[in-house]
Amino acid sequence: MLLDEFYQSPADHQHPAYKNSFFVLRPAPEYATGEVLMASLYRKVGFSELSEKNVPTQGNSFYRRIQTPPKELKNKSGKLSAKSFCKIIDEVLKSPKQPNQSKQRFLQLMPLVPELALYTSSARLRGNPWNPGELIQNMLRYSTSDENQIERTWKQIFETLDVRKLDDDIWARFLSEELVRWRPPEIKHKWKYVPLSTGTALLSPEDVAGMEFPAKRFHKDLCNVLDLKHSLTRRQWISMLESILRIGSASHVLWICHVHSVVWMKILKCIEGSIPDMSNIYKELSIPPMGFWAYEDKSLPRIKALVQKYYIARIGINQVLHILAEIGIILPEDYLSSVSGLQNLFQLLVSKQTELSSFDIIAKNRELLDQESRELACAKGVPSNMLEFLRYSLSQRQTTEVELKGYDQGYYLRKKGLYSAAPWIVTFGPVSAMTLTYCCAVESKFPRNIVDFCKHLVSYGVYIHPNDFPTSDLGSTMANLGLILDSPDAEGGMMISSPLIKRDTVK
After folding, report:
1. What residues contact residue 103 under an 8 Å CB cut-off, 6+ apart?
2. Is the predicted pLDDT of residue 405 greater than 50, yes or no?
3. Are 494 and 469 contacting, i.e. CB atoms less than 8 angstroms apart?
4. Which residues of 73-94 are buried (b: 16+ CB within 10 A; e: fewer)?
5. Contact between residue 326 and residue 2 where contact means Cβ atoms under 8 Å apart
6. How far apart are CA 423 and CA 429, in angstroms?
7. Number of neighbours of residue 274 by Cβ within 10 angstroms
8. What's the pLDDT at 504?
């Protein structure tokens, strides 16, 4: 019966062993910009009872309050006037809407301080939107097998996002105090640390050490950016933090797509009767040496291809697991929680080849893919949502106001031309280049060169050859920002220069 239900609706029926596998994508990503990632992280780490679906309603309530302020807020000695505060909201904190949002009325502000996350930047204006903060939390779970280390990082996120200490940015403290004064009385949420929630099983120490994947790099870079809080203004720091969240979350999703593809290819070999080679399994599951895309390449075709491979593999893996259940093999829910579990699965499939052959797996799989043709075209369902997430989280914000077209500088994809049909190419914004340069340089006591920097980029799936670096758009951007120095002694003839120094290291 379960197999029949799966065949009827493969997207809705996931095998328990798949749901708890180390390569399951949880939560399922949907639309999110960099600011949505940032605001949702505030809510996940500091507002325990705030649901994402209530954010737009609270935003409308807050905006009505500042448009028609109550008597006690219109003019108060020693505080900002209602007119001045409204101007800060409408102009200083304004986050530009995208062209497809121009006719929609909703509050959109840059998530500069925790209080603003009560009112703005949910993934959707209606329904029950996802919380990308959960994706960030799960990425930390991938990065290490040490639960205590993850909890420490999670608490560090909360403490650095907070603005209640005297050494915090003065503008952020002033803004937080004013926002609290203007909060609608019906909104009772308190900014308080939310401990790490229970998630999927951590990878074993052997698996973490054996594979190279974005979450490991992201965890280190995130901590390095968090340490910069007191070296920058709040606006500068939040821009860098948002930038690392964007590349980290997107590359994690792409890596999960890659792992699915590798697993499915090996399962197909098992169905044919041969045990796949596991001697290089960690290398195969790691980020490919050439990354997921090359710098200045067209991005969307590569993203779409990876998402399609993910969905094909997801259907195939669940099909095989359901067939095993049909022949009476009940796998434990944590069966695929490690790489060794994968090896056990492959051996099991080979040993049961006779029973499996009666199900005509390959032919039935083709029927399922034909049935899911719109999903495979990324026009519907999970693949469409994933493509939307990757596109909007990485790309430069397109704005309706011409004067705000340069608002987003932490992007990783940019339009190649000014016309609407121009392709999106892999190109870093100035904030992104600065953030990644700092993260690469800060971990070493010795100077880093462009070869080191190129390796750093590959850990996020972006490939650029050191020989191409000087003539690339990235080389020009970094040269203009003073992030690279010519050095005949350096490999590649260039050193990278860290743009920032943590305040606690200044003598």
Report:
1. none
2. yes
3. yes
4. beeeeeebebeebbebbeeebb
5. yes
6. 16
7. 12
8. 53
Q: pTM of this prediction?
A: 0.94
Which three-class secondary structure state does DSSP give residue 165?
coil
- Give the β-pairing of 494-496 and 484-486: antiparallel
Are 250 and 461 in contact, with CB atoms under 8 Å apart? no
Q: What is the pLDDT of residues 382-404, one digit of tens each?
A: 999 999 999 999 999 988 777 77
**How do residues 334-359 score in pLDDT, each as one tens digit?**
999 999 999 999 999 999 988 998 89
Task: Determine the pLDDT at residue 16.
Answer: 94
Q: Give CA separation, 292 vs 6, 24, 31, 295, 435, in Å.
A: 31, 19, 21, 10, 20
- Going by C-beta distance under 8 Å and a sequence separation of 6 or more, which residues neighbour residue 201? 20, 22, 334, 337
Identity of the amino acid at 378: C
> Residue 186: is it exposed, middle or buried by C-beta count within 10 angstroms (0-12/13-18/19+)?
exposed
Contact 296, 466 (CB under 8 A): no
Are the C-beta atoms of residues 9 and 312 closer than 8 Å to each other?
no
Pair of tokens at residue 419: 């016309």
Cα torsion 395, 398, 402, 405 to 10°: value is: -20
Tokens 């949505």 correspond to 36
SS3 464: coil
Q: How far is CA 215 from CA 136, 245, 248, 461, in A?
A: 9, 11, 7, 11
